[in-house]
Amino acid sequence: MATCDNLVRRHVLNTSPETDCIFCHSQMEDLEHILFLCEKTGEIWNAFLRWIGKSSALHHNAKEHFLAFIGLGNKAETRFLTGLWISIVWSIWKERNNCIFKQGVWNKDKLVLEIKMKLWCWKMIFKLEAPVLDLQAWLSLEGILS
Ligand SMILES: [Zn+2]
Hints:
binds zinc ion, elongated, mainly alpha
C-alpha cells in the first residue's frame, strides 16, 4: 500500500512532517501503525470491542490481528466478525485518505457510525449472521454478541 514509509523508501517522498501519521503525528506513517498501533485508530478498535462485548489485546501484524479478531466469536459469528474487521480496516484507510487529500478532520464518533452503517448494509447484502436488532439498537447498543 502507498503508505508514507513505502513512498519514502521508493524515493517518491522525502521524510518530512507530512510523512507522519495523519491522525496522531507521532511517527512516520506505516501500515501497522495507521491500522493497528496508532492511539487514534486504537480508539476505533476499542469502540468495536465494546460494541461486540469482547475484550482482547490485539496483535500488530495484520494477519495475526485478523485471526485474533475473528477468533473472538464462536464459529457462527466468524463471517460477521470478518465483515466487521474488513469494514473497520477499509474505513480507517478511507479516513486516512480523506484527512490527507481532502483536509478531513479526525472524528472518532463519525467514523464509528459510518462503520456501523456500512456493516448494517453488508449484513443485508451478504446475509451476515448478526444479531437481529432494529437500526436504532444496532447503532447504540454495546455488547451485541455477548
Ligand atoms: Zn498515529
